[in-house]
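request received
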Amino acid sequence: MAERPIVSIAHLSKSYRRGGEDVPVLRDITLDIARGEFIALMGPSGSGKSTLLNLIAGIDKPDAGTLLVDGDDITRLSEAELADWRAAHVGFVFQFYNLMPVLDAFENVELPLMLTALSRRERRARVETALALVGLSDRMEHNPNELSGGQQQRVAIARAIIADPTIIVADEPTGDLDRKSAEDVLALLRRLNGEMGKTIIMVSHDPHAVESAERVMHLEKGELVPDVVPAQAKTPGGFPSARE
Amino acid sequence: MTLRRAAMHYLKLVLKNLFRHRLRSALTVTGLVVAILAFGLLQTVVQAWYAGADMASASRLITRNATSLVFPLPIYYRERIKAIDGVKAVAVSNWFGGIYKDQSYGNFFPQFAVDDEVWFDLFPEFRTRPEELLAWKKDQQGAMVGRQLADEHGFKVGDTIPIKGTIFPGVWEFHVDGIFEPRDDATITRQMYFHWDYLNEQMKKLFPKRAEYAGLFVVQIADPGRAAEISQAIDKEFRNSLAETLTETEKAFQLGFVAQTETIVMAVRVVSFVVILIIFAVVANTMAMTARERLSEYATLKALGFDPAFVAALILGESVALTTLGGILGIALTFPVAAAFKSLLSAVFPVFNVAPQTVALQALAALGVGLAAGLLPSIRAARVRIVEGLRYIG
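response:
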């Protein structure tokens, strides 16, 4: 029997009201994402890819359709329930890192753990492990303005994984980085997916970035176009998925 | 999240955010310090205006000419008032209005011709030394000088004070026989008392028609609860006479003077609140700007699972922390500035003390400004849609 998808979307629609008119952004989206999959959403500006990511992450609500994440229909949750759900199930990686400027790397990574019942010692152990994983053990006490863009994004990735979320959503994670830093971040995401089995849903414009994904979904004018599997994934040198 | 951990984490964020834009925070706190200080000083000015009334005793009545305070009363009224049921003692008091050295503000001080036998019994808030009081009673040209006045002009027992009369012509010389001390900070001791008998004897010699008159009578009553009844009885005693009387409590009498300048007092009071209103606008602008700049951070916190109430409390906390800091500094500065104010303007405000209720009002104003200024930005940040907030570039 096939494993239940971690994300199951059926007939999802979303429109925004602009200038007194409803502008459809997503139309009748149906999509399953498997546990441990690394999926990329591509498409031109305004295609609805970020909106779809936001809906999956529970920071926006659809107009119609169902959206199950690990069996929970998150479209039925209240704002407060959604907040708790996000804290437990979603790790966020943003284009501009979105770190708290007044907190150092350690405190930024620790932030999601403030919503858990973990002791101070447990939190410290987890944060140190996460920062070691992203290669920033020696930058724990550095504030974001003392870190490069690539380092900041790695802190954001450490923050995203610290609470062991069900899914990691990454919105243009390399959009603000130079090529070298972008490659480091992508390698990190691939490692999280490959070695730790993390489900990653990434939005990107960058064709090079999406090569890291096992599956690439294209959106155009709010609709999904058939799956595209990156050529790299088909070769022996392709990145292994968690399901392999 | 346990409550203690939440509180610690919350405080850490609030304090770190507070000093994020140091120049902006410093300027806002400076504005707050000035506003809270100005508010405290203006409130103290208002209270100083009422110092005379605050000093008034409930067991003292003032009987004066019903037509106007400028018209005197015959001295024989004293015995008739004394005979009225409920009256314990009566003392005469005449405003002398003389000039010491020159007419400058700094050299002005009140002088009164009073009954030496009972005066200091009627005013227990003035502490005298028995030997000085006795010496004064024996010395016809003697005077008792208040501590504040003595300190200001360096008067000592044995000094002679020459005063040029204005209402009572001539140059009058008074011997300082004693210095009376205030019972507490609210007691005014910036005045001089001398013998009414000395004044009267001089009047008999120089202007006989002006002799045997009192400016007013201070009436001591046994039961303050009977003040209204005794006042009516005194005034009834002199009804239809050539000099009808008006008797009122000492407090009402003092408030009558304040009422003459009521508009000024009201203006000072209004200005003190306008100052708070202005600083509220400044802090509200600072907090609105701060919250707008950090919308994406608040959206991030909400995305991570933090409650909107936590986000709102962050802004509100920062606003209150800012005004608390300004409030504490403003209150702390009020005391030395009020002391400097007092030494410069003692002729106008002999009592200029920062009252506990003024400090409470200052603290309340700082807290109120903090809460009110942070309210709207905090609601806005709590309500911001995460998707919109994340897009915001501050």
